[in-house]
Amino acid sequence: MSRVYNFCAGPAALPEAVLTRAQEELLEWQGQGASVMELSHRSKAFIDVMEQAESRLRRLLGVPDDYAVLFQQGGASQQFAAVPLNLSSDTDSADYLVTGQWSKKALAEGARFVNANCVADGAEDNFMSIPPRDGWSLGGGRYFHYCPNETIGGLEFSDVPAVDSPLVADMSSTLLSRPVDVTQFGVIYAGAQKNIGPAGLALVVVQKELLGQARSSCPAMLNWETAATNGSMYNTPPTFAVYLTGLVFEWLESLGGLEVMGAINARKAARLYGHIDNSDFYSNPVSKSARSWMNVPFTLADSALDKVFLDEAEQAGLTNLKGHRSVGGMRASIYNAVPEAAVEALCTFMSEFEQRYG
Ligand code: PMP
């Protein structure tokens, strides 16, 4: 077996220890005579899986008791609609900050349900920096939505915006990469397929006092209060995805939690950006104070070499380095399950490539 170093933006690499464990217990899970996928979601055994996953997440993130933790389906994109449907009426307004492709999509979907006020749009700067706070036109609506880490552009906030409305954060590509103070947020949501688990699942962490305001037209499957009162089992949950996610949380705890993970991720990012900055052959266009720890886009001095770079990288076992189709170039996503050795191998490959073609 030869596993590659996988730099995919999502679905992303999963910890090898988690995959091995799932493989070992696939046919017969914990003496049940069946796989975890074949158990009733109403069985005590599966309810334990769900409850343990939730408790582990609460410990990892330090989620206080006055916040609900929900396992939802439909990915992060479904939450783009769930947010306004749960937090506003169709005559209300809400603030949206646009810093890249994902917050732009959230605004477009949100605008179908609420009067969405675009506070500022980083498109003017090609999404290379966070629009300065003093230029934001805040409308003071029911909530303020933003995306702390833009997966495509590799643009990340280094602080939490200070606004008066409840903060709603799409943390799809940054949640669990380091500690976060949950109490600063009204709602945090994230698609699972980066640092959390398999695609299909989305996590929602919501302040309980924000529950109970959903519109009567809000579909039951999108209603956070319905999910909260039914232990995220209003319908059949994606049981295998929840189980695997629980194993990822267990793996994170065994490493020492998010402080330890955050230190590892800081080293990985510093190593790769340092390598890019020390070369005239590679460059990263994002403003230094807003560089993402998780998604590192970079370009070659000669874009005609892009395909050669990608082909040779793949032959060297470094996969999925192609940049998003909307921006081109390369992008290395260095999520939790991408080890430091992978970043080292990438830097070595980049040096050798530069020597040959630079
Ligand atoms: N928001 C962000 C920041 C993302 O990176 C993604 C997926 N890459 C999404 C939303 C959409 O997630 P999903 O595909 O789970 O709907």
Report what the structure shows.
There is one protein chain. Helix 1 crosses helix 6. This protein starts with a strand and ends with a helix. The protein has two domains: 16-255, Aspartate Aminotransferase, domain 2 (3-Layer(aba) Sandwich), CATH 3.40.640; 257-357, Alpha-Beta Complex (Aspartate Aminotransferase, domain 1). The model has no long low-confidence stretch (mean pLDDT 97). It has helices at 16-24, 44-61, 75-87, 101-110, 224-229, 239-255, 258-277, 306-315, 340-357, and strands at residues 5-6, 67-73, 93-98, 115-121, 144-146, 149-150, 155-156, 167-170, 187-191, 201-207, 282-283, 295-300, 318-319, 330-333. It is built from nine helices and 14 strands. The protein is of the alpha/beta class. A seven-stranded mixed β-sheet has the order 2-10-9-8-5-3-4, sandwiched between helices.
Name the helicity range: 25-40%
The CATH topology name of the largest domain reads Aspartate Aminotransferase, domain 2
Strand content: 15-25%
The best one-word shape is: globular
Total number of distinct structural domains: 2
Residue stretches low in confidence (pLDDT < 50, at least 5 long) are none
Alpha-carbon distance between the termini? 34 Å
* Strand line-up across the major sheet: 2-10-9-8-5-3-4
Which cofactors or ions or other ligands sit in this model?
A: 4'-deoxy-4'-aminopyridoxal-5'-phosphate
Q: Would you tell me the overall average pLDDT?
A: 97
